[in-house]
Amino acid sequence: MTKKISKSLEAKKAKVKELQKLLLSHKCIGVLSLANIPAKQLKGTRAKVSEKIKFYFARKSVLLHAIDEAKREDLTKLKQYIEGNNCALILSNEGAFETFRILKKNKEATFIKPEQVAPFDITIPAGPTPFAPGPITSEFAQLGIKTKVEGGKIAIREPAVVVKAGQKASPLAASMLARLGVKPIEIAVLPICILEDGQIYLANILDIDLSKYTQDLKSIILNGVKLASKIGLVSPENAKFLLTLAIRRSVALQNALALKK
To answer: Using CA atoms, how far apart are residues 103 and 109, in angstroms rounded to an integer?
Structure first.
């Protein structure tokens, strides 16, 4: 019994030491809740992002002990977000916002479960199915799906919404979607928060629409250049435009004077 306890303690110490090194060798550390993430989707996401993001799984006591042993004051900010033994750490050198973007981009598709609320209208597309005519025909009818027989198999005449946005999927709808291989639910493995340069960024801050952000930034710059040009303020950004405008106005003035003569 004593030997087993000793081996357990040694294993725990080894994990603490291993994690301590990882904490000190990565600029971004995030806390991930595993509560609602299916194992299959987690595994898929890990495989996709493995070159840029590491995942570390351990009991809460190991995670907290490693943070303390790392002796970096900013790391202690993560401790309040590690709840229970259902958390993991993510480690990256990509920057907090880029790390979040990579994880969000690499979503994993999965089937909807019975009684699960649909985030949007879930549609079964038109086309052939692998099913022969039989009892399943009545199941299609119950879901409001129009069918026909083609080549001895059931075919769906037109796209049909089987679960509307905000509604729970019925057992029949969930079963039919699974049998047809339709995976409408996307699961993103996203952290609760990420620490970078002593600053904690929560998920709602990290979750930005990059295309919208870029467009907004372009609009701000364009409006700034327009305003500076209007009041005659010369800057590297609008100098070429103001020079071109001045030349055009000068030519226009010369032409106007020539006409008067």
So the answer is: 14
Residues 77 and 163 in one domain: no
Distance from first CA to last CA of the chain, Å, rounded?
Answer: 112
The pTM (predicted TM-score) of the whole model is 0.68
Q: Per residue in 149-205, pLDDT tens?
A: 998 999 999 999 999 999 999 999 999 999 999 999 988 899 999 999 999 999 999
Q: How many domains does the chain have?
A: 3
Q: What is the crossing angle of helices 239-260 and 210-230, to 10°?
A: 40
Handedness of CA 227, 231, 233, 238 (dihedral sign): positive
Q: Which residues of the chain have a pLDDT value below 70?
A: 1-5, 210, 213, 216, 225, 228-229, 232, 234, 259-261
Do 196 and 175 fall into the same domain? no
Query: What are the CA-CA distances from residue 213 to residues 37, 111, 129, 217, 242 (Å)?
Result: 28, 32, 42, 6, 28
Q: What gap in Å lies between CA 190 and CA 198, rounded to an integer? A: 20
Is residue 148 domain-shared with residue 66, that is, in the same domain?
A: no
3-state secondary structure of 92: strand
> Alpha-carbon distance 75 to 66, whole Å?
10
CATH of the domain at 68: 3.30.70.1730
Assigned token pair, 92? 């990256």
Residue that the structure tokens 């699960």 belong to: 116
Domain assignment present for 24: yes
Q: Which DSSP category does 152 fall into?
A: T
- Residue 174, both tokens: 């969930």
CA angle, residues 150, 152, 158, in degrees to nearest 5? 30
Q: Which domain holds residue 11?
A: 2-107+188-208
How far apart are alpha carbons 7 and 3 in whole angstroms?
6
